[in-house]
Amino acid sequence: MTGTEHYSEAEQILERYGTDRVWVQVALVHATLAVAAATAISGDNADYADTRAWTEIAGEPRKK
Question: What is the pLDDT of residues 10-27, one digit of tens each?
Fold first, then answer.
């Protein structure tokens, strides 16, 4: 999965399962991997396609 896919998966899990402890932990794993991916592409290492993908997925308020 890409970083943006991990981010999206974390949001979907939380929307689907709410605060169920096991699923929150699964969502946290995906969120952590998303942070690692975002960190890896930040700064001088930023790739335009990755930056654009992050802007599209994380740059908008979460839909309810």
Answer: 999 999 999 999 999 999
